[in-house]
Amino acid sequence: MTPLGVFQIGFYFLVLLVLTKPLGIYMARVFQGERTFLHPVLRPLERLSYRFAGVKENSEQHWTQYTASVLAFGVVCFLFTYLLQRLQGFLPFNPQGFGSAQTTPDLSFNTAVSFMTNTNWQSYGGEATLSYLVQMAALTVQNFLSAAAGIAIAIALIRGFARQQANSIGSFWVDTVRATLYVLLPLALVGALFLGAQGVVQNFSPYQQVKTVEGTTQTIPGGPVASQIAIKQLGSNGGGFFNANSAHPFENPTALSNFLETLYILLISAGLVYMFGVMIGDRRQGWALFAAISLMLLVGVFICYAAEQAGNPILAKLGVATQATPTQSGGNMEGKEVRYGIASSALWAVTTTAASNGSVNGMHDSYTPIGGLVPLFNIETGEVVFGGVGAGFYGLLLFAILAVFIAGLMVGRTPEYLGKKIEGKEVKMAMLALIACAVGILVFSGISSVIQFPKDSYWNSAYGPATGNLNNGGPHGFAEILYAYSSGIGNNGSAFAGVGANTPWYNLTIGLAMLIGRFLIIIPVLAVAGNLAAKKRVPVTSGTLPTHGPLFVGVLTGTILIVGALTYFPALSLGPIVEHFLMAQGRLY
């Protein structure tokens, strides 16, 4: 590691820390219905949204009604996104003439599920597949709506802790409108303007054909990019306009754009943690959660950075310089943007998988085995290390429930968290969410590792002759498959990229994985929220575990890491861990 690289990482975290408190306070005011400095501008639009949708602002929902609203909203979003893709050939803003040939039924299903679930997994190259209208009206809109839905669910769970003997947990429709108007829209607008000023493309022109200096013809794509990139980062979505995502200079042209995009990945997630402390009336609780996830984030960043800066020992044995010098970066630069270097790439890789973001400014498939292990394990923890906009945060609270339950068992007391007794129902719901994700990852990865693709006439006619597995062999090939399903279940969307994912098998099974990872967590979370809201608050006694100090931070961090390790260590041992030892011996597949 270099001093400059360490400084970059430290400066990034310092800026994130400084912004966490003011953003958390602002969001608490928004979701508690209090006036903010944006109300003179946005309050009329908020009222108009309720009137148009037929929503009563002061009418709240039982957790079952809240859940039904979430599911209905998801169905509508899916159908809208699917149909726009299938009909893009008949719709305007399509200068390249893309049609249904580019968006097959299975690919359209996968993409619609992906953006509806805030995953943004992409089995396609955006600039070669989707019209400008689909990129804007389907994908960019879903970047707002799926993120807002995630925030709303987190707010509902917070109300479960904050209220007592209540029969409701708020209104999904009101929470979603407020998340969109007061949080996502203003920050996305600022981000889009900044990115446009930095050189991110924003136009509706047809692609340009130009002559290169070698005399060949090259196609220069364009489109409404800046407006999508800002919300893809801010909403923890990650879906890029271009196939290369934020490694593409039209998405991420400068060091300043790179810093803002990296900051936007965790900004709202960090604010939500502090907002939690504000809304429950004990800001120490928010800082305790912030300390736990910050510790895991920084450890992950420096492990990944150290592995990538150390480079590949096989190349070192061949006489290739792998040490950083004033004239070259050293380390493992394969798959990384030379404009940003190893430190920025490692920071992005860890933050994007600590959150359910999935955007990249380098190729994870080209990382060293340990460097790639960190992003993979981040996803498999449930992406609770900061997490997505809402999604990771409510996963973090499930782990907090599990942590106090384990602590209660150790001392023989009924566990309590924030004045609420943690009983069988809460623990069962938390375990249901964790087990569903683990089963989805391991079962789909296992099946996909042993069967061949494509495998019958439909697959062959649609995707060419049978070629066997479309990814690498050996432990790295297994890691690619494991990462793909971890990314789908974790609603992340990044990939090792060595898997040829645009086949019916992967499109359909990863689509199913994304649904499991979204809704088999949301439903238990809302059940927990409703159950907690109905409970009385119990007084603090000498036997109550303090959940705002270093002890709880240690218990929570240990619970997350131990559960993740026990669940996924056998699979990781067959992938990046064994690949690391093979690399150390000079043997790689």
Q: Would you mind describing this structure in some detail?
A:
By secondary structure, this protein is mainly α. The protein has 18 helices and 4 strands. It has helices at residues 3-31, 39-53, 63-86, 105-116, 132-162, 172-198, 226-234, 255-280, 283-310, 313-317, 341-354, 369-380, 391-411, 424-450, 457-463, 474-489, 504-533, 550-584; strands at 208-211, 217-220, 416-417, 420-421. The chain has a two-stranded antiparallel sheet with strand order 1-2. A two-stranded antiparallel ribbon has the order 3-4. Strand 1 and strand 2 (217-220) form a beta hairpin. The protein is globular and about 75 Å long. The chain starts with a helix and ends in a 5-residue tail after the last helix.
Please summarize what this structure is.
With 589 residues, the protein is mainly alpha-helical.
List keywords for this structure.
single chain; two-stranded antiparallel sheet; mainly alpha; 589 residues
Question: What's the end-to-end separation, in Å?
Answer: 27 Å
Strand-pairing-aware structural class: mainly alpha
Mean model confidence by pLDDT: 89
Assign an overall shape: globular
Secondary-structure element sequence? HHHHHHEEHHHHHHHEEHHHHH
Q: Major sheet: size, sense and barrel closure?
A: 2 strands, antiparallel
| Cα Rg | 23 Å
